[in-house]
Write a structure and sequence with these properties.
Number of helices: 4
Distance between the termini: 48 Å
Mean pLDDT: 80
Number of domains: 1
Strand order of the largest sheet: 1-2-3
Low-confidence stretches: none
Strand content: 15-25%
């Protein structure tokens, strides 16, 4: 799996900086599979987009600062990506809660109490 890549497109004439973060699709699910690979089918329904774009436009009355524009565009792209990652993780937590409830309901998995362990 490829790591995310950050690309900037700068148009000084229009005073715009665009930040593009690519290869994001599996950033959340890769972490989840690492710890809970048997949930893969459920998580696949929740993959995020592959590309996120943040745009920073410089107002005509402001001074052009390319580095500041890059930082702002990157923050905006990451904010969008984080929102989707949080959605995936929230869904994963719901799936895990459901699995735990099923384990408890059907007594498939019994956690010993302290007295059983110490005796």
């Amino acid at each position: 799996m490829r790591d995310s890549e950050i690309i900037y497109k700068i148009n000084k004439e229009k005073r715009v900086v665009v930040c593009i973060i690519t290869y994001c699709r599996y950033v959340a699910s890769n972490r989840l599979y690492k710890y809970a690979s048997h949930y893969e089918q459920d998580y696949n329904k929740e993959d995020i987009k592959d590309t996120y774009i943040g745009i920073a436009k410089c107002s005509p009355e402001d001074e052009w600062d390319e580095e500041k524009g890059k930082r702002l565009a990157l923050i905006r792209a990451k904010r969008k990506r984080s929102k989707d990652i949080n959605r995936v993780l929230t869904r994963a937590i719901q799936i895990m809660k459901r699995e735990i409830e099923d384990l408890e309901k059907y007594a498939i998995h019994k956690i010993p109490d302290e007295n059983e362990v110490l005796s």
